[in-house]
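Schema walk-through. Below, the input block comes first and the output block second. Nothing else is stored per chain. Lengths vary across the set, and this one has 139 residues.
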Amino acid sequence: MADTVHRSLVAEVTLESVEAVYDLLASWWEDAGDVDPRTRFAFETAVVEIAGNIVEHSVAAHGADGRHFILDLRATHDRLTATFKDDAQPAELDLSAVTMADADSEDGRGLALALASVDTLDYRYENGRNVWSLECRRE
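--- output ---
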């Protein structure tokens, strides 16, 4: 593996973009070196859940025609990171208050799954963009 393996995606916020995230991850894993299967599964789960959350819940910024996001993936010898940036209105959420939905609920598990899957999940609104940062330590 090179010192850092990087992949990036710029996509419109559509259901099809979630498939593009899967494709990007598949390409990235090929060059990321050996990753414990549990770490890989957990990281991929979190990345796809955040992508799905952006697709399902983001609202176009005032006056914008559409929504877009950028996903940057990086693998180093000790870390896996993903950063999403989207141009939607600020997400109104407090990650410290996120809990798993009841067993009878049909949705509401995405952020809780993402939080449980990675070592760090951070959200902030910065320079007119929602920024989601995820990190897993490599086993």
